[in-house]
Every structure is written in structure tokens, then in C-alpha cells.
Amino acid sequence: MKLKFLSVIAAGLLFQWGQAQAQEILTLQQAIKFALENKKEAKSAKLDVANAQYQIDEVRSGALPQVTGVGSLTYNPLIQQNVIVMEDPASGESISTVIQFGQPWQANSNLQVTQQIFNQALFTGLKAASTTKEFYRINKDLSDEQLIEKVANAYYEVFQSQLQVETVESNLSNTEKNQQVIQGLVDAGLAKKIDLDRTTVQVNNLKAQLQQARNTMEIQENALKFAMGMEITTNIDLPEETFAIDAQILDRLPVDLSNRTEIRVLEKQMELLELDKKVTMADYYPSLSFSGNLGYMSFAENFPVFNGNATKTAYSALGLNLSIPIFNGNKTRAQVNQKKVEILRAQVEMEDTKLSLNMASENAKTQVRNSLLTINSNEGNVKLAKEVLDNTENNYKNGLATLTELLDAENAYADAQNNLNTSLLDYKVAEVQLIKANGNLKTLVNE
């Protein structure tokens, strides 16, 4: 019997150990790093950067020699014949002769080489391809920053949900203790049963709130795991110091829009538009290329063509090809004007983006200031509400306070805690926005 009892304990310990191993303590830095390695947006941005190099290779290939091999085999069932008229030297009369040109079987192999010598569109395209790679690199930074912001906000929402659960659990535990006290008073004839019933209703309501809070927390955890690209069934847990407050953050992080990735992306985009315009303007320039070919032909009466009786001949040619644009109906001018409009549109977007970023940074600073004030106020309210609750509980036990006053004190304490949790979340969200306004979101990975 004793052995069986020990086996049950051992099995329970192993189960608890397995559960502990499955539970992962997830810091914000770990969550962001995981997202940058596993989330679809991050992977796609990396593939875009890799693909940009292939685009450069494709454009660069146009500046290299183009070598092509061509071969053909032809069978001529009916060979064309021509009549040649010649004068007989002896008689002076004209003599007509029918001559057949060619053989039934003909094989041809040819090696062709072309090389661009001057092509303004090609040279400008090479520069544009290199700039495109830089654009994708900056765009990857922007994608990473957007992912960091999304993960950080989801992370703090999970932590707020956990605090909400802890608050309801604490209130439920305190109310259940009061319920036991009231039960004792009712049994002793010192309290009314209606007081016990009202307390029981309060306990049941708190249990319902606790279940709702746990459901909300589970939903928020799933949202975080989705934002990270993590398997939804993975168990996670957050450290307790997640909502650390930095009262000096406004002094440490002055807003600097020049470092914003959004601005760098638009600047690189405008540079690409300028290069695109130059590529279009290259249609005004002449182009020069070299071409050469080396061929080999074989004629035979019967197949196979390459036999001892076949007639063989080789040929080659070298040349320079010059193309000078003269007039294309002002097509190029219209295309260049369209490119200019696109550049002007990009400038308008740049101005609007700067205005939007300025507004967001000012809002973030305001939100941080207000959140710090609200947190200080709510912390004082929580402390005061706790004192009121303790005094009311003591007064109720001594018959100096009514049950209504006790329940109101419990609700006030719960409200104070929830207000504090909300203000903490508001602060952390504003803190992320302030870090973003300074262009330093990636510092969240290395803190």
C-alpha cells in the first residue's frame, strides 16, 4: 500500500515537472526576436532583399556578351531550278541551260555574339537595380519595426489581461473570506441571512468575472502568438517586471524624425523614381553594339548530311550596329512627363508623412506625460482603497459598518486596481510609440 502511494506521488511530480518544462517564460525581447525569425512578414522582407540581388544580376547580364548557338536541318523535296542563257562562241547562238541550285539535304550551324558598347538605358538600369536593393533593405527595416510594434503592443495586452485575472482572483479570495466570516456570524445569530445571500451573489459574480478574464487572457495570448508566428498551442508565461515604468523616458528619448525608417523609405523611393525617369529619357540617346557570327553549312544528296560526299562551307561576319532615334511622335516626352508627375506625387506623400509622424510623436509625448500622472494617481487610489477596505472589514466584524458599505469598499478596491492596470497599459503603448518616434524601435530587441 505504501509503495502504491509513493508511486502516485512520483507520477504526480513527473507530471508537474513536464508541465513546468512546457511552460515558457517569455520576455519582450525573446518575443520580438522570435517574431523577426518566424513571422511571415519578416521572412518575406528577407526574401525581397535576396531577390533584389537576383534582379541586379538580371540587369547586369545585359552588359555582358550575349552568345547564341543556332542549328538547323532542312530537307528540300523539290529544289528550285533556274534557266541560264549563254551565247555559243562557235555559232553565236544563244543556248539555254537549266541549272539546279542546292541539294536535297542542308545543315546549318551558327554561333552569334552581340555586345552592347553604348546603351544609356542599360547603364542607368544598372544603377537603378543597385538602388532597388538598398530600397528593399530599408523596407525590410520598416517591416521589422512594424512587426516589433505589433508584438510589443500584443505583449503588453497579454500582461494587462494577466493583471486583470490576478485582480479578480484577489477580490474573489477576499470576498470568500468575508463570506466565511458572515457565515459564522449568521450561525451565531449575529448577522442576517440576507447578508450571507448578498455575499454569495457577489462571490458568484466574481467567479463569472474571473472566467471572463481568463477567456480574455487566452484570446490575448493567442493574438500574441499569432503576431510572433508561434504555434498557438505553445504555453507561455510573462515575467512579473513587464510593466516597469521609466519616469525619465521623455528626457532620455528626444524625438528625432530624421532617423525614421518611413522617411528613409520614401527618400529611396524618390531616388528610384528619378532613375526611372532617366531610363525613359535614355530613349533620346543613340545606342551602339557589336555583333559577330561564325557559321558552317553542309549540303548533301542523301541523309546523313555530314558524310564524306557532302559539300561543306564556312562563313563569318563582324559588324557594328548604330541606332539613332529621330522622331517617335513625342512618345518619349509624354512618358518623361508622366515620370515627373510621379515624382511630384512622391514629394507630396513625403510632406504628408512628415506631418503625420510629427503628430504621432507629439501625441506619444502627451500620452506618456498623462499616463505617468494617471499611474501616480491610480497607485495612490489603490493604496487608499485598500485601507478603506481593511477598515470597513474590521468595522463590519464589529458591527460598525453595513454589508452594503463592505461590498462597496470591495468594488471600489477592484475598480482602483483595474484603473491602475489600464493606465499601465496606456503608458507602455505610449512608450512604444515614443521609442518609434525616435526611430529606435529595434532597441527593444537588445534591452
TrEMBL record:
<keyword id="KW-0472">Membrane</keyword>
<protein>
    <submittedName>
        <fullName>TolC family protein</fullName>
    </submittedName>
</protein>
<dbReference type="InterPro" id="IPR003423">
    <property type="entry name" value="OMP_efflux"/>
</dbReference>
<comment type="similarity">
    <text>Belongs to the outer membrane factor (OMF) (TC 1.B.17) family.</text>
</comment>
<keyword id="KW-0998">Cell outer membrane</keyword>
<keyword id="KW-0732">Signal</keyword>
<feature type="coiled-coil region">
    <location>
        <begin position="196"/>
        <end position="223"/>
    </location>
</feature>
<keyword id="KW-0813">Transport</keyword>
<dbReference type="Pfam" id="PF02321">
    <property type="entry name" value="OEP"/>
</dbReference>
<feature type="signal peptide">
    <location>
        <begin position="1"/>
        <end position="22"/>
    </location>
</feature>
<keyword id="KW-0175">Coiled coil</keyword>
<keyword id="KW-1134">Transmembrane beta strand</keyword>
<dbReference type="InterPro" id="IPR051906">
    <property type="entry name" value="TolC-like"/>
</dbReference>
<keyword id="KW-0812">Transmembrane</keyword>
